[in-house]
Write a structure and sequence with these properties.
By secondary structure, this protein is mainly α. The chain is built from 28 helices and 2 strands. It has a two-stranded antiparallel ribbon. The chain is elongated.
Length: about 575
């Protein structure tokens, strides 16, 4: 039978815990507890039967009170010399059933290990205790306990626990990642660069003389600086979980020989976003076919979908301190990965949160370097437009050839409708950002929005207007399947092309340069607009006219004359 704690035991443990927490509010108690620390620290990570879980929680509260108020540099070095963090981490490994010993022990006694311990909350209690002890020790210009935790595999243990926990415990465990990321591995943010350059481990050097510091000699700091992401090594946990959780990133690695997406200045973003959009479409079509055939997906799913929780935790870090975005994103590109994966997310709330995070970074973090996320969202938008136009063109051509609208055509139309909704979400976000900051338009121009992107779209529309004999058949329609996609693209063109000098940006070998001569590129823009007016539906024609209106209202030079000539040519 499963034993539950009685009221007497629960009340007794609570009273003892409250008394010890009160005693630990006095910093002088720390040295008096020195002989008992080994036994005290062992209590939180030990395995208990169901009737003893409250003892672990009570011990954890005492240890956290001790680490918050009673630590000193000499006690930190004492814990390091006795390898107590290593022992605590090893105990947690057994508690999580990461070792063979734990698996055999769980079968021979009533103590909880593995999933049973997780369900009882023991994983959270044990990990929370050691993480806060390590984090508080860093306030004494000593990172030895943090190094001990890292060398003992603590980051791996926390990642394992998050990946295998139930949803009710995941937010609490992810909160511990933020605590580790904000550990003070340097005396101040200004010395962070020096700390990162001291060695390959990314930690600042501990102060050997700090063994003699008193309990009240913690480094002075304001509350805001405690939120700076100095220990970015700990964010490796988030990165590892992200790569496991997002299906696109896994598929990308499989397709590219184990190489993950990279976000450096010279990388081929278009190739990555084309892959993401194509993969999202194939995934949607696969789900449609499974639903049509009543095929159940028997693939073993991960215990918890961490996609949303990881992004929420990342957003919390970014909002805690203005410096955190640049410190983390420059190394891990978390937001860029999420934007790249945007078309593949099945949960609309994750898509919304991804775009809201981008909006927050671009509008709420002064001085944040958001160029790479903006480049990625521009490329995703362009790739989505290009791919969906191909799908719409192929669908219309097949429908005309078959002379009927079959079941497969209906599924394609349904998938296309869902994909267009994603495109409209991207469009709305880009519109907000373009109206907020003109620099967003400059980033989009650097991505070739008025150059190679227009050429790609124009080629597709020209193909759609060609008859079987290869000649162009000027036949306007009331509506086509391409209209909504084309209108989304034109909505962005309207905001970008009206910016001063935008149409004078040309590309050479994929690099955008403002050379003051844009004959070829500008002719592609007007050709695209004219094709939309003459050969697509009414909504597409109106979108083209809106772009013309915006450009002609802003341009008061020779381009205005050229635009008028092109525009009047449509009437003859």
């Amino acid at each position: 039978p499963i034993l539950t704690p009685g009221p007497v035991s629960t009340r007794a443990a609570a009273k003892v815990s409250q008394l010890l927490c009160l005693l630990c509010s006095d910093s002088s108690v720390g040295e008096q507890l020195r002989p008992h620390l080994f036994g005290l620290l062992a209590l939180s990570g030990a395995s208990y039967p169901t009737s003893g879980v409250h003892i672990a929680s009570a011990a954890s509260d005492v240890i956290r009170a001790f680490s918050a108020n009673c630590l000193s540099a000499s006690l930190v070095w004492f814990l390091h010399d006795r390898k107590m963090i290593v022992h605590m981490t090893d105990d947690i490994k057994e508690l999580c059933a990461m070792t063979a010993v734990a698996a055999s022990a769980s079968a021979s006694n009533r103590c909880l290990y593995g999933p049973d311990a997780e369900n009882a909350g023991l994983w959270v209690v044990a990990l929370r205790t050691v993480v806060y002890l390590v984090a508080n020790s860093c306030h004494f210009q000593c990172v030895e306990l943090l190094k001990d935790y890292d060398s003992a595999g603590g980051y791996h243990v926390l990642a394992y626990a998050i990946a295998n926990s139930s949803m009710k415990h995941v937010p609490k465990l992810l909160e511990l990642v933020t605590v580790l990321v904000c550990c003070k591995i340097a005396a101040s943010p200004s010395s962070n660069a020096n700390a990162q350059s001291t060695g390959g481990d990314g930690y600042g050097e501990g102060d050997e003389d700090g063994r003699d510091m008193g309990a009240n000699d913690a480094m002075p700091t304001d509350l805001a600086e405690n939120k700076v992401a100095m220990n970015t090594n700990a964010f490796e946990i988030m990165d590892e979980l992200m790569m496991r959780s997002i299906t696109l990133l896994t598929a990308y690695k499989v397709k590219h020989g184990g190489t993950r997406p990279t976000f450096v200045n010279a990388v081929d973003l278009t190739g990555m976003t084309d892959f993401a959009v194509r993969y999202a479409w194939e995934l949607q079509r696969k789900l449609q076919r499974q639903a049509a055939n009543n095929v159940q997906n028997h693939t073993e799913a991960p215990p918890v979908d961490l996609t949303s929780e990881l992004l929420v935790t990342t957003l919390q870090l970014y909002s805690d301190h203005a410096k955190n975005f640049d410190l983390i994103e420059s190394e891990y590109h978390m937001l860029s990965h999420y934007i790249l994966s945007f078309p593949t997310f099945s949960d609309v709330s994750v898509k919304v949160l991804t775009l809201k995070t981008l909006e927050y970074v671009c509008t709420g973090l002064a001085g944040a370097n958001s160029v790479m996320p903006l480049r990625v969202v521009t490329e995703v938008f362009s790739s989505q437009c290009k791919f969906l136009l191909k799908v719409a063109l192929a669908s219309e051509s097949k429908e005309k050839a078959d002379g009927k609208y079959g079941d497969d055509a209906q599924m394609i139309a349904s998938a296309l409708e869902l994909a267009v909704q994603d495109l409209e979400m991207l469009r709305d976000t880009l519109v907000k950002l373009l109206e907020f900051d003109d620099n967003v338009g400059h980033v989009m121009l650097d991505c070739g929005l008025l150059g190679s992107k227009i050429d790609d779209i124009l080629d597709l529309i020209v193909t759609s207007t060609q008859g079987s004999d290869g000649g162009t058949v000027p036949k306007p329609f009331a509506s086509t399947q391409m209209d909504t996609i084309y209108a989304c693209f034109c909505r962005i063109l309207k905001l970008v092309a009206r910016q001063p000098g935008a149409r004078a940006v040309v590309e050479e070998d994929g690099v955008s340069l403002s050379l003051g001569s844009a004959v070829a590129r500008d002719s592609s823009l007007t050709s695209l607009l004219n094709m939309g007016i003459m050969y697509l539906g009414d909504s597409a024609a109106q979108a083209s006219l809106d772009v013309y209106e915006a450009m002609m209202a802003k341009n008061h030079n020779e381009m205005l004359t050229d635009d008028m000539a092109f525009f009047l040519g449509l009437l003859y």
